[in-house]
Amino acid sequence: MAKLSQEDLLAQFEEMTLIELSEFVKAFEEKFDVTAAAAVAVAAPAAGGGDAGAAVEEKDEFDVILTGAGDKKIQVIKVVRELTSLGLKEAKDLVDGTPKPVLEKVNKEAADKAAEALKAAGAAVEVK
């Protein structure tokens, strides 16, 4: 098997859905017994801005909360199914039972992409 370059691998990852990428990461972690945990960024407080010994932790996990389905409920259900591994009934129940979390503890980029997709389908979304 030919060795793939880093650019080739990134091109393959770009074509994957969030669910497929998440499943790949889980499989990779299991196969190589590693954890792909994000590094926690720590910022020092501004000069003169409080206790110098306190560190501010940057939030690296976000929840995408569906707060309303809007007028295009069927489109929203389709997007929820694309973002999650839910079946049709489960996705419909999630959309009907708003406010409910669609994705939990995802990185900022994934949360923003999911929120954009849901908003484009006509849903009301909140990222926490």
Commentary on this structure:
- The structure is a single chain.
- The protein has 128 residues and is an alpha+beta fold.
- It has 5 helices and 5 strands.
- It has helices at 6-14, 18-32, 73-83, 88-96, 108-120, and strands at residues 42-43, 56-57, 62-68, 100-106, 124-127.
- The strands form 2 sheets. It has a 3-stranded antiparallel beta sheet with strand order 4-3-5, covered by helices on one side. The chain has a two-stranded antiparallel sheet with strand order 1-2.
- The longest helix is centred in the N-terminal third of the chain and has 15 residues, at 18-32.
- The model is unreliable at 39-44 and 47-56 (pLDDT under 50).
Whole-Å distance between the termini?
43 Å
Which residue ranges are poorly predicted, with pLDDT under 50 across at least 5 consecutive positions? 39-44, 47-56
Radius of gyration: 19 Å
Q: Kindly name the structural category.
A: alpha+beta
Shape, please?
A: elongated
What topology, given as strand order, has the largest sheet? 4-3-5
Number of discrete helical segments: 5
Strand content: 15-25%
What proportion of the residues is helical, as a percent range? 40-55%
Spell the H/E element sequence.
HHEEEHHEHE
Please tally the β strands and state the result. 5
Largest sheet, in brief, is: 3 strands, antiparallel
Q: What is the mean pLDDT? A: 78
